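Submission checklist for the structure archive. All mandatory fields must be present; incomplete records are returned to the submitter.

[x] Identifier: Trypsin-like peptidase domain-containing protein
[x] Organism: Gemmata palustris
[x] Residue count: 418
[x] Sequence attached
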Amino acid sequence: MRRTLCALLLLTLFAPTALGQPKTEPAPQTVDAGSSVYQKVVRSTVWVHSDRGGGKLATGTGSLVDKGRRLVLTNYHVVGDVKAATVYFPEFEGREGKKTISERKYYTDRAGKLGITGEVLELDKQADLALIRIDRVPDGATELPLAPESPDPGQSVHSIGNPGKSGALWVYTPGKVRQVYSKKWKVKLDERTTVSFEAKVIETDSPTNPGDSGGPLVNDKGELVGVTQGGALDAQSISIFVDLSEVKRLVNRRSVQLLRAGAAPATQPKDPPKAPREKALESKDDGKFFGETAWKRVAPTAEKLLKEKNTDFVVETFMTPPKGDADKIAALKPAEREKFFKEMVDARAKELKLHGVYVLVSKKPATLYIEVSKDLPADLGPKLKSALLASFKENKFDEGLAKVIDMTLEAKGLGEKK
């Protein structure tokens, strides 16, 4: 009897495995589709500024559709008939660099550094589309792929925009496709101008707003299927997007396809013209920061940049600033000290008629200031300063100088081939 009870007990304990029943596994964590799409698409999405003159600024959204040719897609009514525009790509923060910095003030306060100018290159006024060719594409920006075909009614779609009434930029909006069809409509660009459009459009239930115009509409794979045109003011939950087929018609124009990847915009020469300088500007190490071997590279670098790229390169170090009392300057608040050295560098650059890179290092007070011309990459100055500071903190002054030289040459396409 005891054997029978033991057998029944063992069968009960091991029955699920013995009978071939699957073990219960914890359900895998699902990734929200909207969040996943947003992370893919936001790095392709830009905030567009179009200066209409007279203090009037039109803003909208766009997307990078060709990284090699540096092409940003937006609406015609965002840029109007103005030949130039400025775009801002999103910046990121957080441990993994995935959190979008969405505050408008962050970008307007850094307009000189983050704003990228571009030429309005192609217009399709009938379909309300435009292509901007920007001067450069920042690191981390990605190209938004075009979907193979237009979406179907009932399909989930996602859009990102910069609505003017919102306090945030790069705002996500989900939606469903209601229908895809051909449409004629009118839009009031300003108090005096009304334009007519005719194109194939996608109608969705997405709640879009002014400022979203020109932004991307994508499918669940993060592929572009349309361009935000606007919401219907006299209807609820109806928004209009210019269909993918119109986008393809624009980007496949012969004039667009003939653009060379990486070529500078036709209206923006690689190096702005300036009177050629016969001899490179001299640098000086009065602060005695660098060794003889490291310092010997400065003059040849300046000569090479001037001869081949018409660009100046100057490094000046001081024991104390040539103007002002060192102790009083050291006692200034950080912002006031920064202002003092900026004014000093600006005056020096004007005196030298300098066009290129200027590096100032002071021993007392310990200060580093770097100025670069606007035609150089906007992030070059911060990168040079960061590299030099990192080396100085480890007392590797020669190594820091070498990094500055190498990075400057590379920025002008004169780096050594490896």
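[x] Structure attached
Curator remark: The domain at 31-263 is CATH 2.40.10.120 (Thrombin, subunit H). The CA atoms of residues 177 and 204 lie 4 Å apart.
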